[in-house]
Design a protein that fits this description.
Elements: H1 3-30, E1 34-35, H2 69-72, H3 74-85, H4 94-103, E2 113-114, H5 115-122, E3 124-129, H6 134-142, E4 148-152, E5 159-168, E6 171-175, E7 185-186, E8 193-194, E9 196-202, E10 211-212
Antiparallel strand pairs: 1-8, 2-10, 3-9, 4-5, 4-9, 5-6, 6-7
Length: 214
């Protein structure tokens, strides 16, 4: 094989292998997810906006773990907003809720929320589901229940949690605990993909020792 042809062959082979690697990584990252869209507009009512980066609590540790609200408090922040929006035993801001969870030993040593302990502390039932369909999420929102969706940052990055609050023009709207602006954002910023759903119902009827990473 002559020099120019060999170089072209090597270049094409390298490009092919790089593309294959990207496809494999993409498939690995997206496994277990569901791409969702909204079939109707559900305009949010009066909302509460909390941010895990708030100076008042961003440095607070999650229980006895080495994680703090700034780095790992998105799930606790979402639950704090739910306590303001749904009929649960009492309402909290994220700092108060984190202190409450810490006192009630609702975190494990790695900062994961322990759902059985959470259920007992808040007197709620915590429903834990895989990636739900859009119509199921719409039914929850129409019934006054705000689902927490597990997503990936920018659609392919690390896991993160956002609170679904409505839908418009075919996509769901959410409150992102990392967004400093007090307005809902489109789920399209997370690739319109979800990996799991958690939501709270009034009254404790069942529990599980399952833990969920921050």
């Amino acid at each position: 094989m002559k020099g120019k042809k060999r170089k072209r062959f090597v270049w094409l082979l390298s490009a092919f292998l790089a593309a294959a690697a990207v496809c494999c990584v993409g498939a690995y990252v997206l496994r277990g997810s569901r791409r969702i869209g909204a079939g109707r507009d559900i305009l949010p009512g009066e909302l509460v906006f909390y941010n895990q980066l708030d100076e008042r609590w961003k440095g607070d540790r999650l229980g006895a773990s080495g994680y703090d609200m700034e780095s790992s408090g998105c799930l606790t922040t979402c639950i704090a907003m739910i306590t303001e929006l749904q009929d649960v035993s009492r309402s909290f801001d994220p700092g108060e809720l984190n202190a409450f969870f810490s006192d009630k030993q609702c975190y494990d040593a790695e900062g994961n929320l322990l759902w059985e302990e959470l259920e007992g502390a808040l007197s709620v039932t915590a429903i834990r589901r895989g990636p739900m369909e859009g119509r199921e999420l719409e039914a929850l929102l129409l019934g006054g229940t705000y689902p927490i969706a597990r997503v990936r940052m920018h659609g392919i990055g690390k896991f993160h949690y956002v609170l679904l609050v409505g839908s418009r023009d075919g996509e769901f709207l959410c409150i992102d605990p990392l967004n400093r602006e007090e307005k809902p954002v489109g789920l399209s910023g997370f690739g319109n993909r979800i990996y799991a759903v958690r939501y709270l119902e009034e009254g404790k009827e069942r529990g599980s020792s399952t833990s969920l990473r921050k």
